[in-house]
Amino acid sequence: MAGDLGDTIARLRAAWMAGGMARKHCPPEWLPTIGDGPPAELALAALAGQALHAVFRPAPGGPLVTRDPLPPLAHPPVPDALRPRVRRLVAAYPSMVKHLLALLAGRGFTVHPADWLPTQRSDPPPALYAPWLLWVNGGAAPPRSPAKPLVADPALAAELAQLLEVVSIGIVHRRKRLKIAKLKTAPQTARRLDLFAKVTLGALAAALGTTSAELVATAPTGVPPGIAAFAAMVAATGTPDEHRRLLAAMLDDPECPLAGTSPLAATLDRAEAAALLPTTLRRETTHRLTATLNLAGAACGLACLPDIEASPSYKLIRERLAAAALSSPGQEAHIVLALCLTELGLVAHAQAAQSLLEMCIEAGLPPADRRLDALHLNIALTPEISA
């Protein structure tokens, strides 16, 4: 019977998709039920849907396994009243979920499991969610991509050193600086990036005739992909102190790109990451806060208003609000404004978020506008601000 019904449903669906009437394809025993005329098509659609629901039930692909309940986390989930905003942010900005989780964790909350659960493809969530990661993977540690071997092979280090240069800078205090110049051919460039992923910081320093401390004391110069590859090498093979020294040098150098520096911030605690926010907000070169959010980590939700006001993102928001670019959801202006407000809502301190929200409402944005979701959530997570 299921096979005959499946064929019937297929014919009905084909007729509807072609824009025609499907009554002539229905089983004879259904005709008295659906009747005649245009309403018959609606009745037929309802009957077909009910038949599918009753006959075709999904079957498990294997034996059912009893699972332990999802383990609780150290912090409680966000209050139910805030969950709709969380769900909307998760759905609208999947690439920002890790920053949203960091904001919630910083305010003492977690996301509700019905609104988000980690997967093997998710960006690594805060350590707070480790029990959920174990549960999702059936009690096993989440699989990791095999890491490329990091070696102290003098031959590989010497090959990489040939593609780099160490120059001296400073008139009074002479310092050494790594120069990663543009190479002549694409294969050379690809080989240099591959070597950065294989050689250790110590081996490279020795091959260059210098020390690890000297290589991380100043920001490297040259092509951005090479700078990012060097930063990743330091993050993978250097000490936490070397991570901090290179990151500080790169942030202090206005000509050094911020892209690729986020691995260096992995060992920073919340206070150290928060101390970087004034610099990163000022160093952003576009309206997006990509570098700031990636470097902030656990410091999401701690940026103060004066530092936010120095960012290109804030300046663009003021321009869009002044130009009354508040409607027309399909326009680019709407999308850019939504991105900027969401990113600021994730990085701002609650008091700064309150000031930004008031500014937007005074400019004409409706309080219920979804572009304000991150700001509303940020404020509501701190009751003394939202009261």
Provide a descriptive summary of the structure in words.
With 387 residues, this protein is mostly helical. Helix content is 52%, strand content 3%. It has helices at residues 2-17, 31-34, 39-55, 83-92, 97-106, 130-136, 154-162, 186-196, 201-207, 212-215, 224-237, 240-252, 270-283, 290-296, 305-309, 312-322, 332-347, 350-362, 373-380, 383-386, and strands spanning 165-169, 175-180, 221-222. The protein has four domains: 2-55, no CATH class; 80-136, no CATH class; 154-267, no CATH class; 271-386, no CATH class. The longest helix has 17 residues, at 39-55. It has a three-stranded mixed beta sheet, with helices on one face. The model has no long low-confidence stretch (mean pLDDT 88).
Task: Throw out a few tags for this protein.
mainly alpha, 3-stranded mixed sheet, about 375 residues, 20 helices
Sheet with most strands: 3 strands, mixed
Shape designation = extended
Number of helices: 20
Kindly give the count of domains.
4
Determine the strand fraction and express it as a percent band.
Answer: under 5%
Biggest sheet, strands in spatial order?
1-2-3
What is the N-to-C order of secondary-structure elements (H for helix, E for strand)? HHHHHHHEEHHHEHHHHHHHHHH
Which secondary-structure class do the elements indicate?
A: mainly alpha
